[in-house]
Amino acid sequence: MTPAPRYGPPDASLAPRYTGVRTFARCPHVTDPEGADVALVGVPFDTATSYRPGARFGPEAIRSGSTLLRPYHAAQDVDVFASQSVIDFGDLAITPGNAERTAGQIADGLAPLVEAGVTPIALGGDHSIVLGELRAHAARHGPVALVLLDAHADTWDEYYGERYFHGTPFRRAVEEGLLLPERSLLAGMRGPLYGLEDLDATREMGFEVLTGDELSGLSPSDYSARVRARVGGTPAYFSFDIDVIDPAFAPGTGTPEVAGLTPREALAFVRSLAGMRFVGFDVVEVSPPYDDSAQTTAMLAANVAYEFLALTALESQP
Amino acid sequence: MTPAPRYGPPDASLAPRYTGVRTFARCPHVTDPEGADVALVGVPFDTATSYRPGARFGPEAIRSGSTLLRPYHAAQDVDVFASQSVIDFGDLAITPGNAERTAGQIADGLAPLVEAGVTPIALGGDHSIVLGELRAHAARHGPVALVLLDAHADTWDEYYGERYFHGTPFRRAVEEGLLLPERSLLAGMRGPLYGLEDLDATREMGFEVLTGDELSGLSPSDYSARVRARVGGTPAYFSFDIDVIDPAFAPGTGTPEVAGLTPREALAFVRSLAGMRFVGFDVVEVSPPYDDSAQTTAMLAANVAYEFLALTALESQP
Amino acid sequence: MTPAPRYGPPDASLAPRYTGVRTFARCPHVTDPEGADVALVGVPFDTATSYRPGARFGPEAIRSGSTLLRPYHAAQDVDVFASQSVIDFGDLAITPGNAERTAGQIADGLAPLVEAGVTPIALGGDHSIVLGELRAHAARHGPVALVLLDAHADTWDEYYGERYFHGTPFRRAVEEGLLLPERSLLAGMRGPLYGLEDLDATREMGFEVLTGDELSGLSPSDYSARVRARVGGTPAYFSFDIDVIDPAFAPGTGTPEVAGLTPREALAFVRSLAGMRFVGFDVVEVSPPYDDSAQTTAMLAANVAYEFLALTALESQP
Amino acid sequence: MTPAPRYGPPDASLAPRYTGVRTFARCPHVTDPEGADVALVGVPFDTATSYRPGARFGPEAIRSGSTLLRPYHAAQDVDVFASQSVIDFGDLAITPGNAERTAGQIADGLAPLVEAGVTPIALGGDHSIVLGELRAHAARHGPVALVLLDAHADTWDEYYGERYFHGTPFRRAVEEGLLLPERSLLAGMRGPLYGLEDLDATREMGFEVLTGDELSGLSPSDYSARVRARVGGTPAYFSFDIDVIDPAFAPGTGTPEVAGLTPREALAFVRSLAGMRFVGFDVVEVSPPYDDSAQTTAMLAANVAYEFLALTALESQP
Amino acid sequence: MTPAPRYGPPDASLAPRYTGVRTFARCPHVTDPEGADVALVGVPFDTATSYRPGARFGPEAIRSGSTLLRPYHAAQDVDVFASQSVIDFGDLAITPGNAERTAGQIADGLAPLVEAGVTPIALGGDHSIVLGELRAHAARHGPVALVLLDAHADTWDEYYGERYFHGTPFRRAVEEGLLLPERSLLAGMRGPLYGLEDLDATREMGFEVLTGDELSGLSPSDYSARVRARVGGTPAYFSFDIDVIDPAFAPGTGTPEVAGLTPREALAFVRSLAGMRFVGFDVVEVSPPYDDSAQTTAMLAANVAYEFLALTALESQP
Amino acid sequence: MTPAPRYGPPDASLAPRYTGVRTFARCPHVTDPEGADVALVGVPFDTATSYRPGARFGPEAIRSGSTLLRPYHAAQDVDVFASQSVIDFGDLAITPGNAERTAGQIADGLAPLVEAGVTPIALGGDHSIVLGELRAHAARHGPVALVLLDAHADTWDEYYGERYFHGTPFRRAVEEGLLLPERSLLAGMRGPLYGLEDLDATREMGFEVLTGDELSGLSPSDYSARVRARVGGTPAYFSFDIDVIDPAFAPGTGTPEVAGLTPREALAFVRSLAGMRFVGFDVVEVSPPYDDSAQTTAMLAANVAYEFLALTALESQP
After folding, report:
1. Which residues of chain C register pLDDT less than 50?
2. How confident is the model at residue F1 (pLDDT cuts 50, 70, 90)?
3. Is there a cis peptide before residue E260, judged by omega within 30 degrees of 0?
4. β-bridge mates for residue B72, sequence order
5. Partners for E (CB, 8 Å, 3+ pairs)?
6. Which residues pair with A281 in a beta bridge?
7. Does the bond joining F125 to the residue before it have cis omega, within 30 degrees of 0?
8. Chain C partners of B65 at a C-beta cutoff of 8 Å?
9. I need a labelling partner for D70 at 20 to 30 A (CA). Which of B190, B248, D124, F191 fits?
10. Side-chain-side CA neighbours of residue A96 (13 Å)
C-alpha cells in the first residue's frame, strides 16, 4: 500500500473549508521543498501591466477562491492529493516598480524548488513573471517547449522603452535561449492588433500560433493532438493567461478582450493534455480589483490550478 | 368562453411594471389558497449553507427580479396568466439558526396550499428547504419522483454532525420515505468531489445521476426522454438549484462551481418537459449579496420560476 | 501611394493607450465634418427608458471602454484607420425629459455629418434615439432598410400615452416613412411578451422577424444571406441594441432578458455582412450604472462600434 | 385604555423581520385610507433628473431598507406604532417621460389620503414629485409653509426649456400659490452654483435660505427655534432631500455634493421639531443604482421616514 | 537589553507588505501557545445572525485588511511588536448551523491559550461567539467585567425560540455566572427598539448602559473615567462590535444602524483605556459581502485589533 | 469692462453638463499654453504605488467626477471662470514601469506651462509624480515651500531599493534642492508607522509636521496662520493627497488609513488659504478601481481641484 503523501489539505470533516488561514486549497504553507512534489507559488507582481493593474493581489485572491476545492477530480478520475505531496510555498520576493530585477528574483526564488524536483505552479501576477519562471526551468531542463493559452502572444519587443513588460516575456525568453519556439504552441490570440505584423512577427520567431477563432474550431482531442505533435519529447511548460477566457467569466484581468473562450472549452483543452508531463505551470493576469463580488475570476483561476494538479497527479500515479 | 382567472398581475397598461410593492411578477399577495391555482412562496432561510450565506434574501431578490415578466411565453406559446390563477403567498415562517425546526415549519406552511390543490413554486432559500417541501407533497401524493438540476447531488449524510444541511436533504427525504430514487433523475453534477464514492453513494441510493458533462451532451429532447422514462406515472417534483448554471450567469449563489450550464441550455431543458405534471417546484440557492449590480442571478431565477408557470399553464389550458 | 487619412488615433508608441482625454479609440475630437469619413457620435439620452435608466452615461462609458482598441482587425484583415478618416464628433444636444424634442435635435445634429457624406456611428443612449437618426438618414437617402439585432422589436405604439419611447421608435419611423419594413430584418427577439400579437403586429407592419431561438440556429453565413436577400440594393441602416447579448456578457443595459446571444455569436453575425454598405450605425442601451466594475458591457459596445468601423473600412479600401 | 391602532407592523416575535413581501417597516399594504392615520406612499419617478437617474427605484429600496425598523424610538421616547395607524399605500401612478403629467397624477393620487385626513409620507422619486404633493396639500389646507433640508434650493425656472424638472418644483409651487415663501425655511444649500444670483433669486422669491455652512453652525435647538419662528401657525410641509447628507453616508443620490451633513446632525435637526404638526412629508432623491452594496442610502432614507413617523406619533399621543 | 519577542511580523524591508499568505499583520501562523504573549484568533461563525449573514468570512477579511499595519503606534507611542510576542493562532473549530455547540467549541479552543497566559484577540464572527470566549476567560479568572462598544446591548432572552443567538450572549453569560454586570459598562446603544423595556431590562440585569447619544457627549477621558470607575479591580474583557460605528465607515456588518460613532471617536475611546489590563478582546460582526470594494470595514476592524495590541503592549513594556 | 477669459466651460444652458467628451469641468482640451491662466493636467502614473495600484486611471475619473462643477464658489464668493482662463491640458507623457524616467517626463511636460506663466493643477497619479512637478516649478521659481495635506509624510529614502517611489518624493526633492523644508508644513500624518523615527527623520530634514490628531485640533484660521507664518514670502506649492481624508469619504486610494479628516474639515483648511499665491497644485492618489459606484472619491478630488481654482481666481481678480 502506498503511504499517504507528506503534505496535503487537512481532513475536511474536521472543519468547514472556509475556516483557517488562506492557503491554496488549504494545503500547508511550507517553505522547505523537502518532501513536496508540487508547490503552489504566489508571485504578487503587476508593475509590468499595460492597462489595468491589480494582479499583485492575484495570489491572495486565487488562494481565497480555492477554498472550495476538494480532492477528487471526477472528469479525470483522480484524487489530486492522494499520490502527490502538495504545498503552498507562499509568495516569492519581488520588487514593485522594477520588472527586470523581479525577473531575477523569481528565477532565484524558484530555483530551490526546481532543483529539488518539485513542480511549481505559479499564481500571478502579470505575465511578465513568466520570464523568471522560464529561467528557473531552463537552468535545469535546458530550453523548454511552451504551451500557451492567452488572448495575446506577448512577444513584443518593448513598451515605451521598457523591455521587461507583460507583453514581451516570450521574446525575452527566446533571446535568452529559454524557449524552443519550434516546439511551442500559442493559442487563443484575439482582439484588435497594432497590425498584421503582430502575429506574423510571432510566427517568424518560430512559434506556432492558433488564433482564438481557430482554437474554438478545434475539439479537445484535436487540440491535444496539435500540442503533442508540436512539443514532442521536449520538456514543456504550460502558461495560462486568464484573459484567454471571455470577460463575462473572467472580468478580473488586466487587458480583457471580448469574445473569448468559455471555461468549459478552456478546461477541456487543459484536460485533453492528460499524460503529458510539464516541468511547470502558471496561471496569470488575475486582477482582483476588477473581479466581481462573487470572485468569479479568482475561483476560475483556482480551478485552472486544480486542473494542473490533476495533470501532475495523473503523472504521479503508481 | 373561459372566465378570467381570479388572480394574476394587474393590467400593465395602467402603470409601469417597476411600480408597486414587489410581489412575484406583480401578482397579488394573497394568503388564502382559495381561488388560486399556483402560488409563489418565499422561503427565506440560509442557516444550512456550507459556504456563502445570503439566500435568506433570495425571495426578496427574485421578486424584485421578476418585475419585467410579461404574460406571454413565446417559446411555449402560452399566456401563463390566462388560464390559471396565480398568487404570491408571501414567505413561510422559518427559524433562523435551526434547520431541523424549519423543515417542519415549511411542511406546515405549505400544507394548506397542497391540500387545497394549489401548486406551490418555492423561492429559496438554501437547498435544505426542499426537505420540508417534499414532506408537504408526500403527505398528499405519497413518495414522489425528483427531477433535479443542480451542480451537487445533495445526498450527503451529515455536515459536522448536522444532519439537516443544504448538502443532505435528499438523503433525509429518502430516509423519510418522501422520494422514490428509482423514479428520480439528478442532473448537472460537476466540480471537485471528496471522492469517487460521492456519486457512487448517490447511485447506490437508487438515484440516476447525469454529470454536467453528460448533461451538456444531451439535446433537450434527449433529456426530456430520459426524464419521462425515469419518472413514468409517478407524481413528480422539480427542483432547480441555480448553481447548475455557470457562475458568469449566476454569480449570486452559495457554492458556485465553474464551467456550468448556460441559461439557454438550462431553460431549454426545462421547456422540454412541457406536458409533464409536477406537484411542486422550487428554485433555490440565490444569494443576493454575491449577485452583481444588475441582479443577473435574481432575474434568471425569476425566469426559471416563469418557466415553471409556463409548464403549469400548459397543463391548465382547456 | 495612398495618403494617410486626415484623422485617426495617435501613434500608440508615444504614450500608453490609457492616457489622455477619453475620445472613442483615442481619435481626435473634431466638430467639423470636413475631412472625416466616419464619425463616432454620442447621444446621451435615457428619458425614454421603460425600466432601468442610465444610458445617458453610455457614450462616456463606451469611450472609456474603447481605450484598448488597436488599428488592425485580424478577423476581417483590415486596418480600420488606414484608409478612412475617423473622428469623435462629441455628443449631440439633447433635452432630458423630452423624447420628442430630442428626436428633432438628433436629426438636426446629424444632418451636417450626413450631408457631408460622413458615416455616423451613434453611441447611445436608449433606443428612442434611433428615430432621430433615421430622420437624418432618410432626409438624404430616402427610406432605408433596417438591420436590427435586439432582444425587442421596439415597434409598440405607445407607453402610458407617450408615443416617443424606447419601445416605439420603429413604428414611428415607419409612420414617418423613414423605413422600408419590407427591406428590413429584425433579429434576436426573445423574452416574455404581452401577447402573441406583439410579434404578429411587427410582422404585419411588414418587418421580417427572427426570434432569438431562430437566430441562434443560423450560421453567420446563413444570417448574412438572409440579410443581403432582404435588403437588396436599398440603403441600409444597422442598429445594435446591446440587450441582444446575454446579460452575463452585457449586464449594463436597461431591459435585460435572460438567455441571449454570446458576443462570439453576435460579432460573427456583424462580421458576416462585410461588403455591405450601411449609411449609418448605432449601438444603444448601454447603461453604465448597471455595468460591472470591469466595464464589461461598455467594452463590448466599444468593440461593436469597432466592428462597424471594420465594415466601413472594408468598403473604403482602394 | 386606548385601543390598538388598526394598522401597523406584525408582531416581530412571529417571524424574522427579513421575511415577507417588502412593505415599509412591514406595515400592511392597504389602498383604502379608511382607518389609517399615516400612509407611506411611493412615487417611483425620475424623468426629471438632471444628472444621475435611478430614483424610480427609490421606493423599492427604501422599503427594503426599512426592514430593521422597530416600534420604539428611544431618543423621542415614543412607540411610533402604538397610537397611530400606519399603512403602506403602495405607489402612485406616474408617467415615465412626462413630468408635467406626473405632477397631476401625484396630486390626484394623494387626494383621497389628504381628504381622509391621513398624513402621507412620500418616498421618492426625484424632487420634481413635490409639486404634485404640494398641490394635494394646498387643495385642502391652502398654501403651506415649507421646511426643506436639501443641498439645492430647487427654485430654478427651467432646465433646457423644461419647466417641470427636479430643480424647479418650488418655483412652480410658488407660482401656483401652493407655498408661502415667507413662512418657509430652506436649509443645507451647498456646492458650486451658476452664480451668486442663484441663492439671491431664491431669497427674492421670499424664502429664507440657510447654507450648509450656516446650518452646520446651528445647534438642533437653534434650528428648531428658527423653523418654529418662521413657520408660525401655518400648516407646514417637510421635504427631505437625501443629498443634504454627505455622499459618504448617502452615495445613492442623483446630484451629490461633497461636504454635507452627517446623519447624526440631520436626524437631530428633524428630531428638534417634535411637537410641530406637518400636513405631509417626503424623503426624495434616493437613487439605488448608485447606492453601495450595504444599501446605506436606502437604510438612511428609511430612518428619515421613521423620524417623520415619530413626529406624527408625538402629535397623536393622547 | 531586552531580547526580541519570539514571534512577530517579518522585517518589512525584505518584501512588500502585500506579499505572503494572509495572517494578521503578517505575524506567523502558530498553533502552539508556547512563547506567545498575544494571539489573534479567528472565529468564522455567523449562524446566529438576525439580519445580514456573512461574518463567517470576517476573519479572512480582517487578516486581509491588516496587511498595512506597521509596528509603531504613534498616538500611544508604543511599538506593538517590540515587547510582546504576537501570533496568528488561526481559526477555531466551529459548527455552522449550531450556535450552542459552537459556543462550547470556542471555549474549548481558547482554553489552551488562556491557560498558557496568552491574551487572545478574537476576530469574529457574529456576536454570539462572545459567550464561548467568556466561558474560557471565566474558567480561569472567575466572572469578568465587560467593557462593550456596540449599537445593541445583546441581552435579549431568545430569538424565535433560539437561546444562542447574536442578540442574547450577555444574558446567557450572566446566567452562566461569567460576567459581573455591576462591573460592566455597555456603551453606544442606538437605533429603534422593540420597546422602552429593551434598555430597562438590560439595566435591571445590573449593567450600566450609555446610549450612543450619551456616549457621543463624552470626551475620551470622561469615558475612560467611567470605565475605570465601573470596572475597578475586576479582570475585564473588551468586546467591540463594529456596528457601534456609523455604516458609512463600516458598511460591512450584519445589523447596521444609522448615525453611529466615527472611527476617530471610537478609536479615541479605546485608546483612553491605556494602562488597563484586559484578559481578552474581540472585534465582531464584520460581514465582508456587505463591505465596499475598498474593504473599509475590514481595514477598520484590523485597526481596532491593532488598538488592542497597543493596549497589551503598553502593559507589557518593561 | 474686463473681457471674458479666453478659455472656460461652455454655457451650461446649451446642454446638460453630462454631455460631451469628458474634460475637467467641461473646459476645453487645449495643448497650447498661450492664452491660458490655469491648466488642469493629468498624470496617469501608478508604478510607484506600495499597496493598491490604479491611480493611473485617476485623471480619467477626476475629469468624470468634475462634470457637475459650476462656476460660482459660494463660500469664497468667486466665479472661478470669470477672471481666469482655464484649460484641460490633457495628460502628460509617462512611462509605466519606470518612475525615474517618468519624473523627467513630467518635468519636461510641465515646463512649457510653467514657463508661460500658466498655473498647473496636476491630477494624479500616485504621489511619486510630485517630484517631476517640483522640478518644473523650481526650475522657474527656485526652491519652493511645500504645503502638504497627506496621511503620510512621503519622506522615506527608498523602498526595496527603489529610490523613486510614492513614499520618497519629498526626500528626493530636498536632495535635488527643489524644496525648502524650513518653509514647508506637512499636515495630516496618521496611521501605524515603522517606528518613532519615521516622523523624527522628517522633522530632522527640516520639515514641520502636524499629525492628523494635531491638525484636527486646529481651526481653519489656526491652520491658515500656521501655514502663512511658515511659508512667508517663499513661492509655495500645494499638494493634496486624497488619503488625508477618511476612507469612508475617499475609499478609492492606494494606501488608506482609518480615522482621517472629513471633507468639510479639509476643504475648510484649503479655503482658509485664500489670498496666498501658489505656483502649482496637485491632488493625487485617487485610485478608481477601489472607489465606490457613486465615484465618491473622484468627485471629492474634483472638488479639491475646484478649491484650487477658487484660490487662483481670488488671486486673479482685478
Report:
1. 1
2. very low
3. no
4. B79, C193
5. A, B, D, F
6. A121, A238
7. yes
8. none
9. D124
10. 28
Reading the block at residue E70, the C-alpha cell is 506597521
Could you tell me how far CA F132 lies from the centroid of its own chain?
A: 13
B277: helix, coil or strand?
coil
Which of these, C211, C304, C308, lies nearest to C266 by C-alpha position?
Answer: C304
Does the CA dihedral D252-D254-D260-D262 come out positive or negative? negative
pLDDT of residue C131: 98
Q: Do the bridges between strand B119-124 and strand B38-43 make them parallel or antiparallel, or are there none, so unpaired?
A: parallel
Q: How far apart are CA D112 and CA D136, in angstroms?
A: 9
Test B98 with E56 for CB contact under 8 angstroms. no
Asked if B64 and D60 come within 8 Å (Cβ–Cβ), the reply is: yes
3 state DSSP class of F236: strand
**Residue D162 to residue D102: CA distance in whole angstroms:** 14
Segment F280-293 mean pLDDT: 98
- pLDDT for F316: 75
Quote the pLDDT of residue A317.
67
Compare CB distances from F97 to A56, A165, A290 and report the shortest one's residue: A165
Minimal CA separation from B255 to chain A, in Å: 8
| Domain ranges (residues) in chain A | 24-316
F258, F262, F290: best to mutate for the E interface, most E CBs within 10 A = F258
How does DSSP classify residue B83? S
Mean pLDDT across chain A: 95
D26: alpha, beta or left? (left if phi > 0; alpha if psi -120 to 50): left
**Predicted ipTM?**
0.96
DSSP string spanning D68-104? T--SEETTTTEETTTSS-EEEEEEPP--TT-HHHHHH
Amino acid at site A128: S
* Series of mean pLDDT values for 10-residue runs along chain E (318 residues): 82 86 97 97 96 98 96 95 96 95 98 98 98 98 98 92 92 98 98 86 96 96 98 97 98 98 98 97 98 97 98 84
Residue A161: the pLDDT is 85
Task: Show the CA angle centred on residue A182, arms to residues A181 and A188, nearest 5°.
Answer: 65
Residue E197 vs residues B262, D9, D312, E201, E203: alpha-carbon distances, Å: 53, 19, 22, 6, 10
Q: C263-271 vs C220-231: helix axis angle to the nearest 10?
A: 50
Kindly report, residue by residue over F56-85, the tens digit of the pLDDT.
Answer: 999 999 999 999 999 999 999 999 999 999
pLDDT of residue F238: 98
Instruction: Tell whether D216 lies on the interface with F, counting CB pairs under 8 A.
Output: yes
Question: What is the DSSP-derived secondary structure letter of residue F289?
Answer: G
- Residue F248: the pLDDT is 98
pLDDT of res. C318: 58
Q: Which CATH architecture has domain C24-316?
A: 3-Layer(aba) Sandwich (3.40)
pTM of the model: 0.97
* Among A residues 16-45, those touching chain E with beta carbons less than 8 Å apart: 16, 18-23, 29, 42, 44
CA-wise closest residue to C120 among C309, C313, C314: C309
Neighbours of E77 (CB within 10 A): 11
pLDDT band at F9 (very low <50, low <70, confident <90, very high): very high
pLDDT higher than 90, residue B226: yes
Cα–Cα distance measured from residue C198 to residue A294, given in angstroms and rounded to the nearest whole number: 37
Note whether C22 contacts F22, CB cutoff 8 Å. yes
Q: Determine the pLDDT at residue D1.
A: 47
Compute, in degrees rounded to 10, the torsion defined by CA atoms C268, C273, C274, C279.
-130
